[in-house]
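Next up, sample data:
>
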Amino acid sequence: MLIKSLITKTGVLYNIDTVKDKNLLLKKGFNIEELEANESLKEKQKAFNNAIQTHLDSKAKEFRYDNMMSARSYTGYENPFQEEAQKLAVWASSCWVKAGEIEADVQSGNRDMPTIDEVLSELPIYE
């Protein structure tokens, strides 16, 4: 279970799930629904990021790397895998750029929140 919390500017930690803290936050003028919506958005962003990273790591594993970070470790010096690793790294970067564009469109109201599968389907294809 995720504990929803808020740290105020003065460094006080409140747990949004407890009645006592929720009442204190209401008295201090915080909008609990907005805080909970922001926490939900953070949870969704984390899920999207994890899914995208898993997608990237899966592609790197097709080339016998442990994950994308491992592939990227071969990009900066001459070695038999450098060209392949650079191609993977460029593709991974383009995927993150696309993910950022999708996120910006959602935040600006230009599109509805997509599903994880929809986001993955919009990422660039590795060629």
